[in-house]
Structures are given as structure tokens and as C-alpha cells.
Amino acid sequence: MNKLTEESRAQKVALVTGATGFVGSHLVQGLVKDGWQTHIICRCDSNIPTFVEFDDVIKHFHDGSTDSMINCLSDAKPDVVFHLASLFLSQHEAKDIDNLIQSNILFGTQLLDAMRVNSIHNFINTGTSWQHYNNEDYNPVCLYAATKQAFDALLEYYLQACDFKAITLKLFDTYESNDPRPKLFYLLNKSAKTGQPLDMSKGEQLIDLVHIDDVVEAFIIASQRLLDNKVTKNESYAISSNNPMPLRELVELYAKITEQTIKVNWGARDYRYREVMKTWTKGNEIDCWTPKISLVDGMRKIFVNIKT
Ligand SMILES: NC(=O)c1ccc[n+]([C@@H]2O[C@H](COP(=O)([O-])OP(=O)(O)OC[C@H]3O[C@@H](n4cnc5c(N)ncnc54)[C@H](OP(=O)(O)O)[C@@H]3O)[C@@H](O)[C@H]2O)c1
Description:
Blueprint: H1 3-10, E1 13-17, H2 22-33, E2 37-42, E3 58-61, H3 66-76, E4 80-83, H4 97-117, E5 122-128, H5 143-162, E6 165-171, E7 173-175, H6 184-194, E8 198-200, E9 206-207, E10 209-211, H7 212-227, E11 234-239, E12 245-246, H8 247-257, E13 264-266, H9 295-307
Parallel strand pairs: 1-2, 1-4, 2-3, 4-5, 5-6, 6-11, 7-10, 8-13
Antiparallel strand pairs: 9-12
């Protein structure tokens, strides 16, 4: 065996679904930096991110069929599958049903079965704190969260019958310093720039925000648990900041740290149907992981970004 082959054998191999999304694209960058040979499964019309790390990534295109998924897994032969692909809808309409089932149940089940066929056993799944409305053991905030739970039930079959080892990471809200998504900080910055006030609810709902770098680290730590054979069957962890804050306080803190004047019309909007007023606090913490970037530090990073 020549040196190159030995080295490539020693290299850990990751397969990531949802790699073109917000969390997945950061995870791919983290895995590449961490030395993994990284494969992704995308759709023919997926927009592949332009981060330089994606140049080294091996892309597999899934045509929607189970056979195509089996071929993707057979080509990649990953040590760990990181499953992040999902369709998120906070509320659904009747027309969304097919897409929700296709993205959140069918795609994932094809992936699990392709792992079975190719004797690949290490699986990281991505859940959501929204499976726990009102801090209950199971009460889905919306149909999206219910599809996550349904997928957990399907995963259980593969754990019991096919000797899979799995870790489910349940995520809360995520953010980054230069967040392009039209989420809270983006809207606050926009409003500060234009002077246009933002209409919001009364702002009493708790928000649990975790910086994307911490989320990526949680995935990498979870993968190491699998590779070290520390997982017997299925483990589930909450990737929480442990510091949820009412929206109103969050906005005030943000305005202070980023030295912006942000005008908000509190109470101008109703709370959303099944608004998450209190966050889920009953999840287990994963060993060796704690968020390193506090909310204040994360906000300072945003401040540096908007100043430059
Ligand atoms: N972001 C958060 O704050 C948060 C909170 C809780 C849980 N989560 C979970 O974390 C994971 C990643 O979330 P995210 O915010 O990064 O999602 P995102 O930005 O919306 O990206 C979704 C990803 O899933 C892929 N996808 C969707 N449907 C697919 C299908 N039918 N076949 C193949 N790929 C499909 C998309 O690919 P295309 O590019 O082809 O569309 C994209 O790569 C998800 O499982 C989500 O439920 C996220």
C-alpha cells in the first residue's frame, strides 16, 4: 500500500445531506477544516455554496429514487452520515403536504435504507426543539416538527433491526455574524439602517439562540462519539445556549451592543399560532460540548461585521 493510500484510508469520511442549507454549509466547512474527506448529497437544482471549502467536497446528485440514493452511499462509503436535509415550514398549507413528506420523511428513509444496503451504520440526525411545544416530552409546534418525530420513529426500526448507531441533535435557533437569512438580527439591522420601525408581537416569548460555530462543533463532537464506539443505540441531545431570553430583552440588548437605534412597535402583531413562549429545557447535554460563544460575544461579532 503506498503512502497516499494509507493516508486516504486514515482520513475520516463524512457524508452530509442538507449541505447547501444554512447549518449544513457551515458543517461542511467545519468538517473540511477538521480534515474529513467530505461528500454531500444534493439535488440537481441545488445551489452549491461558493465557500472555498466546497471546492474539495465530493458532490453526489440524488434524482429522488431509492436506487440513486443507494448509489450515492455506495460511492461515498462514509464513516458517518450527517443528515440535515429538511423542509422547514413554521405553518403549512394543504399544498405543502407532498413536499413536507418528501423532504422530511421519504428522503431520510431512502437514506437510511441506502445505509442498510451498503452496511453503513453511523448516523447523525437533526431534530428540533419544536418537537417539544410547552416543554412537553412530545408536542409538535407544527407539522414540520411532527414529520421530524415521524422520522425518529422510522429511524428506530433501523436501530433495532439493523444495528445502526445514531445520535439526534435537536437544534434551537441558530445565527452567525453575517447571517444572510431574513431572521431577527437581519431584520433589526435593516430597520436600524432605514429607520423604518418593526412591527412585532408583545415580545414575551423566549428565544434560545446558538451561534453556528457552536452548532458545528456539536456535530463534530457527536461524530467522534460514534467513531469511538461510545454510542450503544440511539442518543438524543439538546443543542441549547442554556440562556433563553425574552424577545423584547434580546432586541434591547442587541440595540445596546451594536449601538443602533431600533424602533419596534411592540404588540403591533399578534403572536403566531402556537407561538413558542417557553423553550424546551428537558433535553440532555452532550458530553464535552458547551456553547463557547455567548450571546453577547455573538452580538459583538455582528457589530464588528456591520461596522466594516
Ligand atoms: N436553522 C435552525 O435554526 C434550525 C433549528 C432547528 C432545527 N434545524 C434543523 O437543522 C437542519 C438544517 O437546517 P437549516 O436551517 O440549515 O435548513 P435550510 O437552510 O432550510 O436547508 C435545508 C437543506 O435541506 C435540503 N433539502 C430540503 N429538501 C430536500 C429534499 N427533498 N432532498 C434533498 N435535499 C433537501 C436543501 O437542499 P436544496 O439546496 O436542494 O434546497 C438544503 O440543503 C434541518 O434538519 C432543520 O430541521 C435547524
